[in-house]
Amino acid sequence: MLQILRKYSQIIRSYKIIKFEQFGKLLRLRAEVNLIDDSKLYIRETVIETKRKYAYHWQRKDDKLIIRWDNAPDWEVETFPHHKHFGDKREIEPSYERTLEQVLNFIYQQIMNR
Question: What pTM value is reported for the model?
Answer without folding.
Answer: 0.93
